[in-house]
Design a protein that fits this description.
326 residues, alpha/beta, Quinone Oxidoreductase, Chain A, domain 1, Rossmann fold, 2 domains, 7-stranded mixed beta sheet, 6-stranded parallel beta sheet, 9 helices, NADP, NAD(P)-bd_dom_sf
């Protein structure tokens, strides 16, 4: 019998239930997938709390990797026995399970050099990092970026990728232990936002100019500092809200802060085109397989431990990537 984590009401980690489930055979456009590893992402918390509404009862999780065991009518992009990975949103919801039916369209074949556990730890974070580094801004060698949550899963990948592009990386962290992790993965400077004034320190490090780009996955707690850290006509990328949504503000404030550009991108819009998705995934896989980018899996859980995994993620105890191993 297959196992899955589901929730019947929104709320805290305690609403997650580990259950037996029937999987069945794939229908048109579907495959049956046996997971080897499943990714843990902050978006999972958004679904559990209802910030991202899902019909209840619902499965949870949007990222996983494993082996195709059966294909339904009309499936041509993958075959039985293929090792695949995926990430998405509502179209892939339900990843916290041993086996599942899933649309074939989001699946990405894995090259031989990428293990399923590595793929589950990096597909969402890696593709996010890929568009942040390769699509959202025309970086020039010598540019400086401010990277919030630099010791997180996306942060560690972005830091390494940024160094490949010749960028200077200023990373924010919540502890000295996380600062050490961030520096080991490419951060030139770290700022402990628990004890330091982020914007003041950024201005000191940039001779008063500010950074070309701010990559802000924290949201409410860092947005003001992001505004005060970016250079005139720079770019602020609000890529997540781990501390809570950014409060409403009058756009007039942008004119008082050096006329920065502001965007809130979604990964789905950067991988909607199959060719662009393949290009980003190919570049990501190449960097990882060659060792130019290391994927750090620093937390491993079983599906039975899903509630604890969510507690650890919400309390910012984690660094790098977290996965469920099956």
């Amino acid at each position: 019998m297959a196992k899955a984590v589901r929730f019947y009401e929104t709320g805290g980690p305690e609403v997650l239930r580990y259950e037996d489930v029937e999987v069945g055979e794939p229908g048109p456009g579907q495959v049956r997938l046996r997971h080897e590893a499943v990714g843990l992402n902050f978006a999972d918390i958004y679904f559990r709390t209802g910030l991202y509404p899902a019909p209840l009862p619902s499965g949870i999780g949007t990222e996983g990797a494993g082996v195709v065991e059966a294909v339904g009518p009309g499936v041509t992009n993958v075959s039985v026995g293929d090792r695949v990975t995926y990430t998405g949103a509502f179209n892939t919801l339900g990843a916290y399970c041993t086996d599942r039916l899933i649309p074939a369209a989001p699946l990405i074949r894995l090259p031989d050099g990428i293990a399923c556990e590595t793929a589950a730890a990096m597909t969402m974070r890696g593709l996010t990092s890929a568009y942040l580094m390769r699509r959202i801004y025309d970086y020039k060698r010598g540019d400086t970026i401010l990277l919030h949550a630099a010791a997180g899963g996306v942060g560690l990948i972005v830091s390494q990728w940024a160094k490949l592009l010749g960028l200077t990386v200023i990373g924010t962290v919540s502890s000295e232990a996380k600062a050490e992790v961030a520096r080991a993965h490419g951060c030139d400077h770290t700022i402990n936002y628990s004890t330091e004034d982020i914007a003041k320190r950024v201005r000191e490090l940039t001779d008063g100019v500010g950074v070309n780009v701010v990559l802000d996955s924290v949201g409410k707690d860092t947005f003001e500092a992001s505004l005060d850290s970016v250079k005139r006509r720079g770019l602020i990328v609000c890529v997540g809200t781990s501390s809570g949504p950014i409060p409403p503000f009058n756009p007039h404030i942008l004119g008082l802060k050096g006329s920065p550009y502001l965007t809130r991108p979604a990964l789905a819009d950067y991988i909607a085109d199959p060719a662009e998705k393949a290009a980003l995934a190919g570049e990501l896989f190449d960097h990882v397989a060659s060792g130019r980018i290391r994927i750090e899996i620093n937390q491993r859980y079983t599906l039975q431990d899903a509630a604890q995994a969510h507690r650890d993620l919400e309390s910012r105890k984690t660094t790098g990537s977290s996965v469920f191993v099956l």
